[in-house]
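Chapter review. Work through the record for TetR/AcrR family transcriptional regulator before attempting the end-of-chapter questions.
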Amino acid sequence: MAPVRSTATQRRADAVAAGMRVIADDGLTTAAMQRVADEIGVSQPYVFRLFGSKQGLLLACIDEVGSRVRTTFRSAAAERPGDPMTAMGAGFRELLAGGVTGGLWLQASAIARHDEVVAARCREVIAVLLAETARLTGAGADDLARFLADGALVVLLQAIGVDLSDGSRAAVDTLIPGRATP
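Structure tokens for TetR/AcrR family transcriptional regulator:
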């Protein structure tokens, strides 16, 4: 039986999945593009053909992060309609647990400092997620700002290896001199 060839759409999806992992770990480099190509079994020029540039791959990865967070929020809100924001926060922490989502977001944020196209895409993803959160919870601007700040805190704490198993407030408490538990 002849091997089944993947479509460009499937290769693109595979490249985004690999790109998220690679960029989260190594940043957006030419070597990272080669790792993506190696992981999905294609040439590096083919990866460039799929996305047009390293930036194109990063933008597709940012879009995927937004999609995954949005899906997580919707599922969590549906499971706990009485307290959707708490459920959405818990779902977000679970999504971050593997390190890929948060790592990719931190890399994208660093690149966004000097790349307006990436910065605009990051703002767009945040705006969509805030609108979705407002729709799912009825939250106003103050609650949305706190929810966004809590999410950013979780991304940061997870990235630096702070134990979040008891929640972000307990994790912060362990970082305050004299309060850390052995």
